[in-house]
Amino acid sequence: MVNGTLPAKWHHRAKLHERTVMSHDNFSTSRPAGMLLPQTLYRGLYVRIATKLGVDPSYVSRVARGERFSDPVENALRQEVHQITKKLGGRAVAADKPAHRGQKRLGFLVKRHRNSIQRDWLHHSQSDPGHRRLKLSAQKRTSPVLPLVDEALKSMKFTPKEMTHMKMKAATQHGGLRRAQGYTTTGLVEDYNLIRRCVSALAEKNLNRLDAHLLLHDLAQLSEALDIQLQHALKKFLARA
Hints:
- By secondary structure, the protein is an all-alpha fold.
- The chain has helices at residues 8-21, 38-42, 45-53, 57-64, 71-87, 106-112, 114-127, 129-132, 138-142, 145-155, 160-163, 169-180, 185-205, 212-238.
- The chain is globular, with a radius of gyration of 18 Å.
């Protein structure tokens, strides 16, 4: 970091992560033919590594979540992320380069900056034309944000398949609340897009503190969790009162 600013290479990497992981923020269901999504490439990641190393996939998952420590598993995770980044057209970091001891995972960073995420979310919400038309207090506008963030962090520790079986209580409550507050479906979707934007910006500001090898994986997991939360919120939002 020079004079309080990040080096250009870190900005480039952050923008790359944002483009690849957050590119579906516009809620469009149409994608160019052959376009690769991080979620697709990461499915089966733990099983592939477990098979290669002769361990249980749940153990690989615990290592990825930081609950267990294993150099072979961490190295295998970095190698897989390296290959996936290349397939996505990204600028991959050397797979055999170990993470710096002080580097953290995305979930740790988000937990430490929950309040700033909420403040940034409110700023973006108040600047959005669709959100701005709703005359809500800051408290009513932001009340579901941190519960959604906390639920997403908890959910991203699981595989996408496991996430689909989770209840997502905060997301369901969010859908009901926004319907009562007069939101449109577009406004509801934008709530989740703003969370993605805030987390992406937070990661960009703190790239030198994050494990770059696993950042793309963490962003993809968080995006999966937010997508599933949105499904639950929409179901409640569109249900008859």
